[in-house]
Write a structure and sequence with these properties.
Elements: E1 8-14, H1 18-24, H2 30-42, E2 46-53, H3 60-75, E3 81-86, H4 94-97, E4 104-106, H5 113-119, E5 129-131, H6 141-152, H7 178-184, E6 196-199, E7 205-213, E8 216-226, E9 231-237, H8 238-250, E10 259-260, H9 261-268, H10 275-279, H11 282-287, E11 292-295
Parallel strand pairs: 1-2, 2-3
Antiparallel strand pairs: 4-5, 6-10, 6-11, 7-8, 8-9
Helix pairs in contact: 2-7, 3-6
Amino acid sequence: MQKSGCIAVSGGLEVASDRLLELIQKGVTVAQVAQVTQNFTASGIMVHSYLMYGYPTQTVQETIDSLEMVRQLFEQGIIQSGFWHQFAMTAHSPVGLNPDAFGVIPQQNDTSFSELAKQVTFANNDIAFTDSTGIDHSVFSFGLKKSLFNYMHGLCFDYPLQDWFDFKIPQTTIKPNFIENSLSQSTLVFPKPNAKIIWTAGEFDFQKKQKSKKGQVFTNLHFTFYDKKDTLELDFPLKEGEWLLNLLQLTSYKNNKLLTIKEVKNSFETQFENFELFWQSKPFQKLRTVGLLVLS
């Protein structure tokens, strides 16, 4: 995406709470969101996050815990901007279609809810409601937005969350290093067999180099890759390096040829063992940062 010109993405983290993300059926956890936004940021793509408070059944504790999650995401530098929205129920959303399941009471007046849903239009489809929790979520609006304004400017990460509100709030239950620990977990996943490989970078240099270790002499194939800012140098054992050189030349975007992971694996294992181990090696993973793309 970055090489295609993408400079920023925006996405709905919504409520930074695993329970509520599951209720919304978002299909992700906060830890997974952190890993994805880290990958975007590391690739030079800025991340804007849509945030939500006041979701049906959301407790005060969950609101404060969501704020702590957001604080840590900004502190780690893996999202660059965001905006808090108070939840609004729309007629044809999962909540609007099944309010009882979410503890929501639509304000229907004398009109049945089913009839009310039929009357709304695309641009005017908000339905007034009361939350069975009885919480007035609007009181959190100013504190959430003020804290976010500071976090976006790299400020006040050490402020107690209580400082953002003029009323008593509970202490967060989120560990102060939750996001940091989430980022340290390995996210290496071996691609599917039908995923395709393409080498998108330009020219590179390579040469044979000898290296001595404990009295033995080894020959490596030394690669030098270039991008707009940096130079990456990688060494591979000679035979593996020659195989890799052929792979990069064969899958170059200039050749308009894509190989599947299955084809690449079969090719590798005609000469060597354990393609998965080679794939997950540090030199090969570094190679992926300069232009070796996997298309699922």
